[in-house]
Amino acid sequence: MQEKLNLLRELQEIDQELAQAAAVRQGFEDESQGLTAEQDRVQVMADELLAQLDVLQQDLAQLRQQQGIETDQIKKAESRLPAIQTQKEYVAVLKEIDMAKKTCLETQTQISEINKQIDELEADLAEKNTSLDIMKKQTAARGKEIEALLSENEQKISARRATRESLAKDLPKSLLSKYQRIFARREGLALVGVAEGACCGCHMQLPPQQYNQLHRGTELQSCPHCNRLLYMD
Ligand SMILES: [Zn+2]
Question: Pseudo-torsion of CA 140, 144, 150, 153, nearest 10°?
Fold first, then answer.
């Protein structure tokens, strides 16, 4: 029995290392995903700004075209003035010019407003693009580091797995599966020592009779409280 327990202790040590290596891998994968997600988030914002800019540029082009037409109307009306014969008609054309100039001025105000918005968006976009460049460089650099660390971790995992398999081969199947069940259920601690008559897993006192049996070391003992397998040093 002692020999099997020693094998199990060795196995548990490897399983704990493997669990830790898996957690390390998960950590690196999460970090990698986090970096990519943050970059994607800024990229989406930059794309949205670009789309808004596109709409504003179209509005601006339309307003400029409109302004051209309005300026032409003013010029045409002004050119008619010298040939006008009557005071009434003169006043009417002046009024027409005045109205057209007002409209033209309103268009100019809209154009200025849009130009202001475009400037703001372009500044915002430039800022986002700078951030993106920095992020891409950082993500790529850290990505390489993570890749190296992951591959190192993976090598460690596969080496330990090989050792584990050869150890597991020497254990009875029923004992191995019992151990694995408890390992999964008891947060990676299936096999524990006994100190001062108590289980080192749950720290509950063991019945004196079981304590004596443990001392004899003839059969496998489980803690009656947490079900972990017990060994005596
Ligand atoms: Zn216990």
Answer: -150
pTM score: 0.73
Do 96 and 118 belong together in one domain? yes
Q: State the distance from the centre of ligand 1 to the C-alpha of 197, rounded, in angstroms.
A: 11
In the reported structure, the alpha carbon of residue 186 is separated from the centroid of ligand 1 by a whole-number distance in angstroms of 10
**Residues 206, 141: Cα–Cα separation, whole Å:** 55
Single out the residue in 133, 155, 171 at which a domain terminates: 171
Model pLDDT for residues 5-35, shown as the tens digit of each residue: 999 999 999 999 999 999 999 999 999 999 9
For residue 202, the CA-to-ligand 1 centroid distance in Å is 4
Q: Are residues 202 and 161 in the same domain?
A: no
For residue 230, report the distance from its CA to the centre of ligand 1, in Å. Answer: 8
